[in-house]
Design brief:
about 575 residues; alpha/beta; Glucose Oxidase, domain 1; TIM Barrel; 2 domains; eight-stranded parallel β-barrel; 16 strands; about 50% helix; binds phosphoenolpyruvate; binds magnesium ion
Length: about 575
């Protein structure tokens, strides 16, 4: 069995179609000086056509996958209107006397090289966007259609070297059952799209893995585990087919839970809320049953741009969420930049250990000007609904006190200007560093709520880099140390009369739901597509049963034992 990085859950069973993007063998073709204008005009036409295609695609994507995904098409359009990109192609035609195709190829290669050499995973993955846009331009220049994908007429699992977001979105959904890619990881745009389209997907199998497939091979993939079976035997096919059918029936049944409360059989309620990156449509979140936004990642308002967003721009972004959620709570996390998230215009230094470095609240407290602007914008938005403020990466009590003091100053400033805001705005901290978990009793006296960020809490507790695929097997939120820290945090919050939520990925894992309810977690914040599944788990047990599960799980010494115990309890239910 082969294994890749699981990026989108679900089982797919179908024939393979192997796709390779031919790159690098492009011949550079020369032209005469008299042909420059003609080539420039051809380039212009293909850029204009691409813009029209992307506008149309954006519309389609908005309908099928939501506004956040449609933003990918906008990012592509931005490249098309960036003078450093298309302008560079025009200059190349004129200066080097080459065809429009050759100019597109050369400039794309240049940009891809720059992006791929960056340390930041997010920026590296933008190389895929450039590939995508330049492929589109070349296709438009040659008059070719999308090629291959659109012609699929039977159930297929796509096996590709590098899937672009437009490839992913243009796939005929009724035939494409699953995706496997040699490159990419869970944060690539194609992975995000696959998840929101509900297509099972596995990435990062490498060139070697890719070479083991040929067209027409029979393939099973399990997007939850990353398992790939190549030409499996009858028994495996039977097993996975049964699992797939069960999954489909379960999904169907989940729809009935829309509109029902997230409470246990004995009436204990928890809050199920959504994580948002600023592009989600609040109406859609409400429609999916989100009782609020448990994590508004404000850094997304700061990305994909060349300058710091102004107070007004930030205000617009926060206002949209706060107003859109119609009085339901929106927890706005202050800027969480650094680590794997860079802002080119913020001039972050190269660091030996960026995840242990100048990150999140550490930046905000040393760049008080930026911090104040953000707090002003959040406070102003708080006048129009229910906003809460959350500080990321807290390790020291002093940081909370300092942040709160700055918040007070900003409140005074707004007051003296006569600006409206919620004077009683609640303030919370993320618990994502073991130190914060260990001093939770003291921290609880400073704030109104906690939110456990398991994504970071795991990496800092087990000392395992969340981005490093070589040690990804060690990265697991069911590690007993992580569970025990979480329990300490929840207990400390309750002892001090405040509540604890969770906005890390663990909150969306149905295998963890009973355990977390039993530990006393008050709020679960997750990817909108997981809300119903988690709700179902909450509604399937009593608080007493959940407590018993938590107690047992917390006593187990290994990850494997915790996981198999939870799986056995879930199967029983
Ligand atoms: C976390 O660390 O769990 C979290 C939610 O924050 P991020 O993934 O943005 O670091
Ligand atoms: Mg984090």
């Amino acid at each position: 069995m082969m294994k890749g990085i699981p990026v989108s859950r679900g089982i797919a069973i179908a024939k393979a179609m192997v796709l390779r993007t031919e790159e690098g063998h492009h011949e550079i073709k020369s032209i005469q000086a008299s042909e420059v204008d003609r080539e420039k005009a051809r380039l212009k036409e293909s850029v204009e056509l691409a813009a029209r295609q992307l506008t149309e695609l954006e519309k389609q994507v908005k309908e099928t996958a939501g506004a956040e995904q449609a933003a990918i098409m906008q990012a592509h359009m931005e490249f098309l209107s960036d003078p450093a990109f298309v302008g560079e192609m025009e200059s190349k035609i004129a200066e080097q006397l080459i065809t429009a195709e050759s100019a597109v190829q050369q400039v794309a290669e240049q940009f891809i090289m720059i992006f791929e050499s960056m340390d930041d995973t997010y920026m590296r993955e933008r190389a895929a966007d450039i590939r995508d846009v330049s492929k589109r331009l070349k296709q438009n220049l040659s008059g070719e259609a999308g090629g291959g994908l659109a012609d699929i007429k039977e159930a297929t699992i796509i096996i590709a070297d590098d899937l672009t977001p437009s490839d992913t979105i243009q796939m005929p959904r009724q035939y494409v059952q699953g995706l496997v890619a040699a490159k990419g990881g869970a944060t690539s745009h194609a992975a995000i799209l696959a998840r929101s389209l509900g297509i099972p997907a596995i990435m990062g199998i490498g060139e070697e893995g890719l070479n083991r497939f040929k067209n027409g091979d029979f393939v099973i993939i399990d997007g939850a585990t990353g398992d790939i079976l190549l030409n499996p035997d009858e028994e495996a096919i039977r097993q996975y087919t049964a699992a797939q059918e069960k999954e489909a029936a379960r999904k169907q049944a989940l729809e009935q839970l829309r509109g029902l409360n997230a409470e246990t059989t004995d009436g204990h309620s928890v809050h199920l809320v959504a994580n948002a990156g600023g592009k989600e449509d609040p109406a859609e979140l409400l429609e999916k049953g989100a009782e609020g936004i448990g994590l508004f990642r404000s850094e997304f308002l700061f990305m994909h741009r060349e300058t710091m967003p102004t107070e007004e721009e930030q205000y617009e972004g926060y206002l949209r969420a706060v107003k859109g959620m119609q009085g339901k709570p929106v927890i706005i996390r202050t800027l969480d930049i650094g680590g794997d998230k860079h802002l080119p215009y913020l001039d972050l230094p190269q660091e030996m250990n960026p995840f242990l470095g100048w990150r999140a609240i550490r930046i905000s407290l040393s760049r008080v000007d930026l911090f104040k602007t953000q707090l002003r914008a959040i406070l102003r938005a708080s006048a129009h609904g229910k906003a809460l403020i959350m500080f990321p990466m807290i390790s020291h009590i002093e940081q909370v006190r300092q942040a709160k003091a700055i918040l007070e100053e900003v409140k005074q400033e707004l007051k003296s200007e006569g600006q409206a805001f919620d004077e009683a705005i609640e303030v919370g901290v993320m618990i994502e560093i073991p130190a914060a978990a260990l001093i939770a009793d003291d921290l609880a006296k400073e704030v109104d709520f906690f939110s456990i960020g398991t994504n970071d809490l795991v990496q800092y507790t087990i000392a395992v880099d969340r981005m490093n695929e070589n040690i990804s097997e060690l990265y697991n939120y069911f590690h007993p140390a992580v569970l025990r820290l979480m329990k300490m945090v929840i207990d400390a919050s309750h002892r001090n009369g405040i509540w604890t939520g969770m906005c890390g990925e663990m909150a969306s894992d149905p295998l963890a739901t009973e355990l977390l309810v039993g530990m006393g977690l008050d709020e679960f914040s997750m990817n909108q597509n997981s809300l119903l599944e988690v709700k179902q788990r909450v509604r399937s047990i009593s608080l007493a049963e959940a407590k018993e599960i938590a107690e047992k799980a917390l006593s187990l010494p290994t990850v494997a034992e915790v996981q198999s115990y939870l799986a056995s309890r879930v199967n029983e239910a």
